[in-house]
Amino acid sequence: MKIKIKNEENIIVLMRKIGYHFDRKSNPENPSFSRPIGGGKFPRFHIYYNPEKKLINLHLDQKAPRYSSTNDHGAEYSGPVVEKEAKRIKNIID
To answer: How far is the C-alpha of 50 from the C-alpha of 32, rounded, in Å?
Structure first.
């Protein structure tokens, strides 16, 4: 689910404000952030940020990738859980 960022706030500060942590292994040109659900690493909400378009792309990672050579991880890009999180994010950033 895609969400447009309207303000000019630093993206790392903004992600911290909404409860997400910077993924240090992410691509610096399109950084990613995550917010675990529950006590473990997965499931988690995961955001990729496109700085050129000021757009965040939200999805829910249900589990870790099965193999190190693939990103196949059972992600959900829509549905009630993702929509509820998107609404929470929009309420904070607007």
So the answer is: 9
Map tokens 């965040």 to a residue.
Answer: 56
pTM: predicted TM-score of the whole model, two decimal places: 0.87
The model's pLDDT over 4-29, given as tens digits with 9 standing for 90+, comes to 998 777 999 999 999 999 998 888 88
| Cβ–Cβ under 8 Å, residues 60 and 78 | no
What phi, psi does 87 have (nearest 5°)?
-65, -40
- Domain edges within the chain: 2-93
Matching residue, tokens 């988690």: 44
- Say how far apart CA 47 and CA 25 lie, in whole Å: 13
